[in-house]
Specification:
Layout: E1 9-12, E2 17-19, H1 21-32, E3 40-47, E4 53-60, E5 68-72, E6 75-79, H2 81-84, E7 90-95, E8 102-106, E9 118-121
Parallel strand pairs: 1-5, 2-7, 3-6
Antiparallel strand pairs: 3-4, 5-6, 7-8, 8-9
């Protein structure tokens, strides 16, 4: 169980998730393209209708004091405390050989699956 924190904490990525080299390069490029305000990579897991867990990777312009900051492969990634446990063991890849290039979050701990990984657009919000 993760306890409440009053400031951003840091953790090694190997405890939680990994990015493939392709995904790390794409994420770094998206962050570097930000010319207005600094952008940060955020991983989130949220429950939707029917109890289904939805995973996302987004670029945000601010972070919370309660986020965990994870350094991995040259990236700084933020994850909220609630989502952190759902990313344990995940592998994040980037598919560019599809009509819509996207990040793919592979969840090995999922007990049921529809046969495909959840995929997300790489466009910033």
């Amino acid at each position: 169980m993760i306890s409440q924190r009053s400031s951003i904490s840091t953790a090694p990525a190997c405890e939680f998730f990994t990015f493939t080299a392709r995904a790390a390069n794409e994420a770094a490029e998206l962050v570097a393209q930000s010319h207005e305000a600094p952008l940060y990579i955020r991983l989130r897991a949220e429950f939707r209708a029917g109890g289904q867990l939805e995973y996302s990777i987004v670029l945000v312009d601010s972070v919370s004091d309660f986020d965990t900051k994870v350094f991995t492969q040259g990236l700084t990634v933020f994850v909220d405390e609630t989502s952190l446990r759902y990313f344990i063991g995940t592998r994040i890849d980037y598919e560019e050989d599809t009509p819509l290039p996207r990040f793919v979050i592979e969840i090995p701990s999922a007990s049921t699956s529809c046969g495909r990984s959840e995929s997300f657009s790489s466009c910033p919000r």
